[in-house]
Specification:
200 residues; mainly alpha; Arc Repressor Mutant, subunit A
Length: 200
Amino acid sequence: MESSLLSHHPSVGPLLTESVQRAKVLEGMLRAVAEKGFAAATVADAVRLARVSRGTFYALFDSKEACLASAYRLGCEVLEARITAAVREAADWREELRLGLRAYLQTLEEDPLFARVYLLESSAVEAERQATLTRFLARYRTTFARSGQPVPPDDALFVLAVGIHELACTRVRAGRRVTDLEDTLVGCAVRLAAEEEPWI
């Protein structure tokens, strides 16, 4: 089975039999949902793709929803870790913004399996989606604080986080690349931070 970026998360590493089984189940669910959509995908699909038994699945997860939420959460943790690593040496806030968005877009493009679930099926795990967007909001707040300009209000930063997510979603749904969005997204974000009029 082709692996997704979930295989890079330490909690699904091949240290224990349960870890191996868990990794297989998460990959199987991710693939099933990416291929069929959450509504049509079944536990039977996931265990078939994972090559494990239904008993193994239910020993690890209570439901299809719980399994997908776990896969989504772990994938987001890897995505965010890659962004953090990418911006670590940024010289200023603009470079931090660009490097972070580049890592975000590159990760999605390099892992179409996760990208389809993260972008197109996230409504199935809405609480996880909202938590991820809120973390991105906080990341933008920290980045913009380095600019020396007043930091936009959280509502504006949330619009930025959701807008980036939805634009990437539109590209993936159409089968188009997301990495060529980098300049557009950086330009929009810089203008948000460099707004001359005070935020009301």
